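Why do we care about 3D structure at all? Because function follows from shape, and shape follows, mostly, from sequence. That is the central idea of this module. The next example makes it concrete: a single protein chain, its amino acid sequence, and then its structure expressed as tokens.
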Amino acid sequence: MAKIKSVYVCQACGGMSAKWQGQCPNCEAWNSMEETVEDKPSTNRFQSLAKAAPKQRLAVIEAEDLPRISTGVDEFDRVLGGGLVTGGVALIGGDPGVGKSTLLLQAAARLAEQGRAVAYISGEEASDQVRLRAQRLGLGRAPVQLGAATSVRDILTTLSAGTPPALAIIDSIQTMHSDLIEGAPGTVSQVRASAQELIRFAKERGTAIVLVGHVTKDGAIAGPRVLEHMVDTVLSFEGERSHQYRILRAIKNRFGAVNEIGVFAMTEKGLKGVSNPSAIFLSQHAEPVPGSCVLVTLEGTRPLLVEIQALLDMGGPSPRRLSVGLERDRLAMLLAVLHRHAGVACMDQDVFVNAVGGVRISEPAADLAVLLAIHSSLRNKPFARGVVAFGEVGLAGEVRPAPRGQERLKEAAKLGFSTALVPAANAPKKPIEGLRIVPVSRVEDAMAWARE
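And the structure:
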């Protein structure tokens, strides 16, 4: 009888080691190595008789649009790219209590009310607990099939009986167990094997599957990183439990735009979509205040108006540079560009920059709005009401264009803004009604406009 060989697998990155180590040599995580049985490739004496896979030229293959299933939740459909894809597998992660199960239960109830078969499999709660949550949300009469199981074999046997459901929700993948391999639920090998069986079922039977994933203390989806490569869509549900608003963000999407976001408000009756999210990212000041500038940013295909606030105060021998919702290293770079090319020195000032509403801005088109807010706070003079700005700033002091500038300007005009400070390359050829365009090509031009 062959001897069973065991290896130690890191639960954070999936790296393997022949012996136990306190720190993973790949990702340097501590106490993450767990023992598991090594998977050996199976040998078959008829393997030499296997035929080569058929090949076709790309131009000959006929491609058709994949059918989509609308969940009935508009913001959820927007992030997915128009709805769930038949046979597609989505992975959604988020902090505990942020509302993942609530969102999926609402989507399952809407689909079931449309006459589609929906199965909700819970590996963490009993069926009566899910039923109580549905009653609190006013969904107690929805014809959703509930089940509490952790064995992947039992789940697939149940789903295969009769007509497969249009949607199956697995809450969560870390609680699933496959009998094909050894190991406790939640380990790297079990998560990978369980997800692989569910994905195979989705592709063969045409059922859309949504997997719920736990997250680590750093906010990343727990389990092997290969899990994100196996699924079609990866969604991240963000938000603080103490705040009302939640943001659903698409990190990976084979059937839609990446970095698309959906905004929800948590209410007593569950999550409700916010049709105009720009309103929650803008502070309502009675009068214009210094250190404030409105940015037109782009999240996926949706333009958003976000207020950028800056506060400068006399610092000590080592002034601080802090930012919330923006990259701190980029803030230090912008301060150097502001000093070198516009003559505005902040070397003796503590600089604090914040994006209102808790939104995270990663695109460089926020540079111009950040510099204008810093300049306004330093001079203690506010801008006139109705001013927006966007544009990337380079180290040479140039203001570079931002993608999809026309959509940004139209969104600002729709919300009643009257003046837009934009890169010269983004200046529209035709005037936009109610919006005055101020094109700038360098940082000093923008600061000269701000001094007027």
